[in-house]
Specification:
47% of the residues lie in helices and 12% in strands. By secondary structure, the chain is an alpha+beta fold. The strands form 4 sheets. The protein has a 6-stranded mixed sheet, with no helix packed on it. A 4-stranded mixed sheet has the order 5-8-9-12. The protein has a two-stranded antiparallel sheet with strand order 3-4. α2 crosses α3. The chain is globular.
């Protein structure tokens, strides 16, 4: 399907899951086990994740979800995802939250880079285009035009915004090879050529386009790497190298119910002389604007607002799993268990309350742009890497030996040699054996398998290294108000003797 045909299609109806899956068969270069994947929609490493994303398209397109999931495009008059709605009021931000919550619930918060994530970053750029215009008005114009295309064609972007871990002791331009990090190697009349590598394109193999930029601090001399641009995943010369996939090695969906369905691949991206036309370049060789794109627009706030909606859903799922496990074992009323569950619930509620305060404590600037509460956002980000590990540890403590006494596979319930013992000894006081094991398999896949371990690492560094997110909190806390209290205390009137 041509771009013109795609645009015409989306002008009359929303993009469906089937449309999305068909669009992935476009000759993209994704490499697994030393081979180029012929079709990501059928390869076992990506098939079920792609289908999970396709369900998001169908949820958004369902007529019964029209008001919840869409708003009217100001350009075409057609319904488009609320993920692309630039919030101007508290109600707008709430609408974005409810949209992302609906999507996150379909995958239990386990697909962090769903299409609404990078959509938030481009909404932020489009909300404050003057930041990009500081480099040249044409770049802001390019951004607005591309944002409108993303919105009206229901495009799914992933991003790669972190340089490779090759030699972090040196800036990009002082690496042993100037084309190690993704940057400009040639400028042409019609665009630029990019070579080098960038990470960490989560869901890159099953997205439509890739957003390339850099969130790490860049230095004078790093101009070739100080860009913001977009390329289709099937662009000639663009190669994706996903980490070891979990889905094809997970066995049955009963034994690995989560990793078999929701393994969004994290991919290393290599640009091998990839041509990018000027209309898809939004920042060009500008260190200052490369930094400002994150903090002087609402991009970082809106993208991470979606991330925290997704995380709150994931925590709600974790608490549901722990509660069901306790009910099955008869431990739910045990005082020691209720204390641990109380701690777990308190942490989950803190995150949900911080999420809601994005709306209630948001601010609207002089240009009418709503900024989600940055202190609330960065408080949650700063503690996520520490509290998430504690929450998983609580669940492990509650489970005891349950995880390591589960049967070897679902086949133990089917074999006449083992089924009688399974039914007799694997049951709980309230459920049959297979139902109990199904719950425990869910929980083990959540925290104990390779998939679960990846998620623990993922949440630990979701907002970046802990010192970075804590510095974000430091920059956004109202210390002026806090120290004013100290000054007031120091200036109390004398106490009469």
């Amino acid at each position: 399907m041509s771009m013109a045909q795609a645009a015409a299609r989306t002008a009359t109806r929303m993009r469906s899951g089937a449309d999305y899956l068909e669009s992935l068969r476009d000759g993209r270069q994704v490499f697994v086990d030393g081979e180029c994947v012929k079709d990501v929609t059928t390869h076992p490493a990506f098939r079920e994740a792609a289908r999970s994303v396709a369900r998001l398209f169908d949820i958004a397109a369902a007529p019964e979800n029209r008001e919840l999931m869409t708003f009217t495009s100001p350009k075409t008059g057609a319904p488009v995802w609320r993920a692309y709605q630039i919030p101007k009021t508290h109600a707008d931000l709430r609408a974005r939250r409810l949209f992302s919550e609906k999507w996150a619930e379909s995958n239990f918060g386990l697909m962090g880079r769903s299409p609404d994530h990078v959509a938030g970053f481009f909404c932020g750029y489009a909300a404050v285009p003057g930041v990009l215009a500081a480099g040249d008005q044409k770049y802001a114009d390019n951004l607005i035009a591309f944002y409108e295309r993303m919105r009206d064609e229901h495009l799914y972007l992933s991003y790669a915004i972190v340089p490779p871990q090759i030699d972090r002791s040196k800036p990009a331009h002082k690496q042993s090879d100037p084309a190690l990090y993704a940057g400009v190697v040639k400028e042409r009349d019609d665009g630029v050529v990019i070579s080098g590598a960038q990470q960490l394109a989560t869901s890159g193999p099953i997205s439509d386009w890739l957003h390339l930029s850099c969130i790490h601090p860049l230095q004078p001399g790093d101009e070739n790497y100080a860009n913001c641009l977009a390329v289709p995943i099937n662009a000639p010369g663009l190669k994706l190298y996903p980490r070891r996939p979990f889905a094809p090695r997970s066995g049955s969906a009963f034994d690995y119910p989560l990793s078999s369905r929701f393994d969004e691949s994290d991919a290393y991206v290599v640009f091998d002389n990839v041509f990018v036309p000027w209309e898809h370049v939004f920042i060009y060789r500008n260190v200052e604007i490369s930094r400002d794109q994150w903090w002087k627009t609402t991009a970082h706030s809106l993208g991470n607002h979606q991330a925290q909606v997704r995380y709150v859903v994931k925590l709600r799922f974790l608490l549901g799993l722990a509660k069901r496990m306790n009910e099955m074992t008869g431990n739910d009323a045990n005082p020691a268990v209720s204390i641990l569950m109380g701690e777990l619930a308190a942490l989950a509620q803190i995150y949900e309350s911080l999420l809601i305060s994005h709306e209630t404590m948001s601010t609207i600037d002089k240009d009418g742009v709503l900024w989600p509460s940055r202190p609330s956002l960065y408080a949650a980000s700063a503690m996520q890497s520490e509290f998430n590990g504690r929450m998983l540890e609580i669940v492990r403590e509650l489970a005891g030996s349950a995880f390591i006494t589960l049967p070897s596979s679902v086949e133990d319930f089917d074999s006449p040699l083992t089924a009688p013992d399974m039914e007799r000894y694997m049951r709980s006081a309230s459920t049959d054996a297979k139902s109990r094991v199904a719950v425990m398999r869910l929980l083990w896949d959540f925290i104990g398998t390779e998939f679960g371990s990846r998620h623990q690492q993922y949440e630990k560094f979701y907002g970046g290294a802990s010192f970075i997110v804590k510095q974000n909190m430091f920059r956004n806390y109202d210390f002026k108000r806090a120290t004013a209290l100290v000054d007031a205390a120091l200036n109390l009137p004398p106490v009469e003797q």
